[in-house]
Design brief:
The complex is a heterodimer.
Chain A: H1 4-24, H2 28-53, H3 57-87
Chain B: H1 7-36, H2 57-86, E1 100-110, E2 113-121, H3 123-146, H4 153-172, H5 176-194, H6 202-231, H7 245-248, H8 251-256, E3 261-264, E4 267-270, H9 271-286, H10 295-298, H11 304-313, H12 317-325, H13 327-331, H14 334-355, H15 361-381, H16 385-412, H17 425-428, H18 430-444, H19 450-464, H20 468-493, H21 509-524, H22 537-546, H23 555-581, H24 592-597, H25 599-605, H26 610-657, H27 664-684
Helix pairs in contact in B: 1-2, 1-4, 2-3, 2-4, 3-4, 3-11, 3-16, 3-21, 4-5, 5-6, 6-9, 9-12, 9-14, 11-16, 12-15, 12-16, 14-15, 14-20, 15-16, 15-19, 15-20, 16-18, 16-19, 16-21, 16-22, 18-20, 18-21, 19-20, 19-23, 20-23
Classes of the chains: A mainly alpha, B mainly alpha.
Main location (chain B): membrane
Keywords (chain B): Membrane, Transmembrane, Transmembrane helix
Protein name (chain B): NADH-quinone oxidoreductase subunit L
Chain lengths: ~100, ~675
């Protein structure tokens, strides 16, 4: 049986990869994928804890996270398509009209 | 009549309402007309306020309404007088039966404070009411003629009626608060009336000066009222908490004001003395005494009927009335009484001397009024209340006559007030001239004319009651009065007219008729208090209120004063006649007396420097303070705080703007840094 620590470590690695992805990539779609990665790393940690504690709370929360993530992707992609139509680009650094 | 006495002030108030409504209607109509034909109305509305061309038809209408209202008040007052005379004079000594005190409703009631709205009708207030409504009616009628060319006579009569209402409140009120209501009311109305010709240069300033100076005095009256409210006790020792005259001036209650006292610098001061002193401050404001007399001469900028009403017959007499009404308080404090006498005498002398140096026909009379008020105040200070009241009445009549006469001169002489341009007007204006002579006879105390009796009663009282110095000084004042009146009569009515450009003409009947009526009253009004056992009507009448014995007549004093006065009048008259003959009086040229009197005369011309002194001591520092607060404190500190706050917010906004780059990734980075910090905080805690 793999120890909970290993799962948490993997989850942390995945999360960090996601954060770095969001921070360094300019393509919105890739940033989206990185966000998904972060969400899933959190799910992984939740399930690992759930198993360690032999309780189902973490798994239930995971389902919520998946549902919210799906909704987020639906909204996010719709926004992305609109932005692309208006700007003809998926580069976030070109979309800075809300500058103060 | 007691049931109808409330009509006396209500009728002029009704006049105010009617004339206001009529005036508003006129305004509506003229606006509607102006809409219909443009340009037609252009001729009106411009030009000098009081010598526009042609008669204003509204003057007669609103003037008559106003006059009738005051006239009806006079009739009611006379009826009340007759009713009071019908009451039994007195049952026992010192007890007064001839009065009624009607309370209509409770005006204010908070906690301990209860102020009734009611009238006290007794010998003193009825006498004042007779003067106010009687002379007031004549002045109203005169104003119909005087204001006939004015642009807004309706407004004028509204103010004039309102003034009468306020003055009646002042003399009829049965408590200090009612008196104060009228006191402030006449102040307001004098402000409105003095500044009536507000498009000219001087009147607005004069009205402000009158108002502000009077406020200083009003402060004294208010403090006195508060002190009476908090300190007065009933004979059984409980607090009175009342401002009703009859309760406050009850003997036992007034004495309670003496129980409070304090030692200061070795002298004992009682509450009664302090209250009397604060009342005196109010009196110096309203009755134009030193040090607050400076407003009255400037107030001559108002229309002349106003000068006659305010500055002879009503408002300025309020102070004397107040002192006579509250004389039990003054009598508790001999030192304040001496102060009152001193102020009266000083005012009488200084104002009379200033009158010598004036060229404006009305300003001579204005200073003369101040001076005569000084006589009255001095009389009150000496305890000669009847004499003061007597002089107040006769002076109210003959000074109104003189003011109206000067108004007639001004009106008929192209609105020119400079006596140096006049001369020889007796031929052009006979009615004005003869009535003016009668008024002058009253003022200088020509034998058997009203002023002779009343002024001599004051001077006689001074010699009778060991105020020898006061008596002498008042004689000097009387001599000065005669001199400047001789000077004025000569400059205005005798010799040749010096400014030939002005076409002088006699005034209309509206104006001469009241002059003649007042002249008749001037000749006759001495009878109200002739000396002699059976004649002391006024003394007998007022005796229950002031408890004073009849003044004795001193033939020698009267003879000396009269001879000195007439000699002085003749000196003034012939001196200026001579000067006119030798062409020594020219417009814009200084007076003859300046030639001989030199710098001293220059001081008189400058009114002893009172205005300059107040300017230097009060106005300038006040302006400096105002400019400190306005230019430094407000701009630098207040604006600094307000603008500084805004600046700070703006600055932080500009700083934070740089973070709002619009780059999603930089926001994300901040987010991550935030998370790391928060997590780090919890982890390392």
């Amino acid at each position: 049986m793999i120890s909970t620590n290993a799962y948490v470590l993997l989850s942390a690695i995945l999360f960090t990869i996601g954060v770095v992805g969001v921070l360094v990539r300019r393509n919105v779609i890739v940033m989206f994928m990185s966000v998904e990665l972060m969400l899933n790393s959190a799910n992984l940690a939740l399930i690992a804890f759930s198993r360690a504690r032999a309780e189902s709370d973490g798994q239930i929360i995971t389902f919520f996270v998946i549902a919210v993530a799906a909704a987020e992707v639906a909204v996010g992609l719709a926004l992305l398509v609109s932005i692309f139509r208006a700007k003809k680009t998926t580069n976030v650094d070109d979309v800075n009209t809300l500058k103060g | 009549m007691a049931e109808l006495i409330w009509l006396v002030p209500l009728l002029p108030l009704l006049g105010v309402v009617i004339n206001t409504l009529l005036g508003l209607n006129d305004l509506r109509l003229s606006r509607a007309n102006a809409h219909h034909d443009h340009g037609h109305d252009h001729g009106h509305g411009h030009g000098d306020a009081h010598h526009g061309h042609g008669d204003n038809p509204t003057a007669k209408r609103s003037g008559l309404i106003a006059s009738v209202m005051v006239g009806l008040g006079f009739v009611l007052t006379v009826a009340t007088l007759i009713e009071l005379l019908g009451m039994p004079a007195k049952t026992t000594l010192g007890e007064n039966n001839r009065w009624f005190d009607v309370t209509y409703w409770n005006w204010m009631a908070f906690g301990d404070l209860e102020v009734p709205f009611g009238f006290l009708i007794d010998q003193l207030s009825v006498t004042m009411m007779l003067l106010v409504t009687g002379v007031g009616t004549l002045i109203h009628l005169y104003a119909v003629g005087y204001m006939s060319h004015d642009e807004r006579p309706t407004r004028f009569f509204v103010y004039l009626n309102l003034f009468i209402v306020a003055m009646l409140m002042l003399v009829m009120g049965n408590n200090f608060v009612m008196l104060f209501l009228g006191w402030e009311g006449v102040g307001l109305c004098s402000f409105l009336l003095i500044g009536f010709w507000f498009e000219q240069r001087d009147p607005p300033w004069a009205s402000v000066k009158a108002f502000v100076t009077n406020r200083v005095g009003d402060f004294g009256l208010l403090m006195a009222m508060f002190a009476i409210w908090t300190l007065a006790r009933k004979p059984d020792g409980t607090f009175l908490h009342s401002l009703v005259f009859r309760e406050v001036l009850e003997q036992g209650t007034v004495f309670s004001l003496q129980q409070y006292s304090t030692f200061f610098m070795g002298t004992q001061y009682t509450a009664a003395g302090a209250i009397a002193f604060m009342l005196l401050l109010g009196v110096t404001g309203k009755s134009a005494q030193i040090p607050l007399f400076v407003w009255l001469p400037d107030a001559m900028a108002g229309p002349t009927p106003v000068s006659a009403l305010i500055h002879a017959a009503t408002m300025v007499t309020a102070g004397v009335y107040l002192m006579i009404r509250t004389h039990p308080i003054f009598e508790l404090s001999p030192s304040v009484q001496s102060t009152v006498t001193f102020i009266g005498v000083a005012t009488a002398l200084i104002a009379a001397s200033i009158a010598l140096g004036q060229y404006d026909i009305k300003k001579v009379l204005a200073f003369s009024t101040v001076s005569q008020l000084g006589f009255m105040v001095a009389a009150v200070g000496m305890g000669a209340y009847v004499a003061a009241m007597f002089h107040l009445l006769t002076h109210g009549i003959f000074k109104a006559l003189l003011f109206l006469g000067s108004g007639s001169v001004i009106h008929g002489f192209g609105n020119e007030q400079d006596m140096r341009k006049m001369g020889g007007l007796r031929k052009k204006m006979p009615a004005t001239f003869w009535t003016y002579i009668v008024g002058t006879m009253g003022l200088i105390g020509f034998p058997l004319v009203s002023g002779f009796w009343s002024k001599d009663e004051i001077i006689g009282h001074a010699f009778d009651h060991d105020h020898r110095t006061v008596g002498m000084l008042l004689v000097v004042g009387a001599v000065l009065t005669s001199f400047y009146m001789g000077r004025q009569i000569s400059m205005v009515f005798f010799g040749e007219q010096r400014d030939q450009h002005i076409h002088a003409h006699e005034s209309s009947r509206w104006m001469t008729a009241p002059l003649i009526a007042l002249a008749g009253l001037t000749l006759a009004s001495g009878v109200i208090n002739l000396p002699g056992e059976d004649f002391h009507f006024l003394t007998t009448w007022l005796e229950p209120i002031v408890e004073e014995e009849a003044a004795k007549f001193h033939l020698n004093i009267a003879a000396i004063v009269t001879i000195l006065g007439l000699a002085s009048f003749a000196a003034g008259f012939y001196l200026y006649n001579w000067a006119a003959k030798h062409k020594r009086i020219k417009p814009n040229q200084r007076d003859l007396l300046h030639h001989w009197g030199g710098d001293f005369y220059a001081i008189l011309e400058e009114k002893w420097g009172f205005d300059a002194l107040y300017n230097a001591v009060l106005v300038k520092p006040y302006k400096a303070l105002a400019s400190f607060f306005g230019k430094f404190f407000d701009v630098k500190i207040i604006d600094g705080i307000v603008n500084g706050t805004a600046e700070l917010v703006g600055l932080s906004g500009r700083g934070l703007r740089t973070f709002q780059s619009g780059y999603v990734r930089s926001y994300a980075l901040m987010f991550v840094i935030g998370v790391v910090i928060v997590l780090g905080f919890f982890a390392l805690r």
